Amino acid sequence: MSRPDTALAEALAAGTPIPRDAEGPVFAEPWQAQAFALVVALQNRGVFSADEWAQALGAEIREALANGGCRDGSDYYERWCEALEQLLIEKGLASQTSVDARAAAWERAAEATPHGKPILLENDPLR
Question: Which of 13, 93, 100, 107 is the most buried (most CB within 10 A)?
Fold first, then answer.
């Protein structure tokens, strides 16, 4: 019996360069695991179906590749996050304005955070 996250990864990976090993998906950074877990949790709660997710992720990967994205899969989780943002916008759960505002807040927080310290939205000087 395969682990649930492995089965999900196999279903989502159909034809995509998902970073993985024999046990399932692998993550180079903690945020990648968090993004993966967020999608799994939202899908498990019925926010979107596996089909909707596969369509969104596939579209994002195709668009990125058409625009010079990494063919080796090294930007896979960036595509994952972009697909999630677009799906949430399409479902009316977020707006492009709110997504852009949150991204800008994280960028300001990152710039204001001393090296080696965790980046927190509370560090955004405009907050």
Answer: 13
Domains in the chain: ranges and CATH = 4-94 (1.10.472), 95-127 (no CATH)
Chain mean pLDDT for the chain: 85
Cβ neighbours for 58, distance < 8 A, ≥ 6 positions apart:
16
The per-residue pLDDT for 20 is 75
Quick one: CA dihedral 71, 75, 1, 11, positive or negative? negative
Strand ranges in 26-123 using DSSP code E only, listed in sequence order: none
- pLDDT at 56 > cutoff 90: yes
Classify residue 59 by burial, with Cβ atoms within 10 Å: 0-12, 13-18, 19+: middle
Distance, CA of 80 to CA of 33 (rounded, Å): 11
